[in-house]
Amino acid sequence: MRDGAQIVGRGEGWASSAAGTDVVEIVGPRDYSAAEVCAALRISRLALRRYRLAGIAIPVTHSPGAAGGHTERYDYEALLRLRTAQRLMRDLGVNLAGAEVALRLLDQLAVLRAELDGVRAKLE
After folding, report:
1. Measured distance CA(15)–CA(38) in Å, rounded
2. Could you tell me the residue range of the domain that residue 12 belongs to?
3. Which of 112, 120, 121, 122 is 20 to 30 Å from 97 by CA-CA measure?
4. 17 has a pLDDT exceeding 60
């Protein structure tokens, strides 16, 4: 991806656009290849592997690929988690382990909010 690429909000999804031909669009819920994820987030395959090993981005599929390699596919939620982890690390200065903890806490908070909404609905 070219140096001028950036991730831009676009309705339900988001897209990466650049001057030139290297355009990676991530515009909604579907599965994305590791190459698409790396291009959209401007990270290396090694960085994506580190995020995966830290538990931040879990592939939805991991199947044998061409030439004996493996093909990983990531869903839209994994991309959002990766982008959030990047922001935590860049903007707040947390390390990879800290980003994983923060994301886990955010997940727990979402579950608790859903449970609270269910309880509120029953009381009404």
Report:
1. 13
2. 6-123
3. 112
4. no
**Sheet strand arrangement including 70-74:** 32-33, 70-74, 61-64
Residue that is written with structure tokens 């339900």 in the block: 12
pLDDT tens by residue, 56-91: 999 998 666 655 566 889 999 999 999 999 999 999
- Does residue 1 lie in a domain region? no
Token pair belonging to 31: 């599965």
Q: How far apart are CA 74 and CA 121, in angstroms?
A: 34
Question: Is 1 a residue whose pLDDT tops 80?
Answer: no
How many structural domains comprise the chain? 1
82 contacts 56 by C-beta, under 8 angstroms: yes
Average pLDDT over residues 102-113: 97
Instruction: Please give the angle made by the CA atoms of 107, 112 and 114, to the nearest 5 degrees.
Output: 95
User: For residue 76, what is the domain's CATH number?
Assistant: 1.10.1660.10
Question: 120: buried, middle or exposed (CB in 10 Å: 19+, 13-18, 0-12)?
Answer: exposed
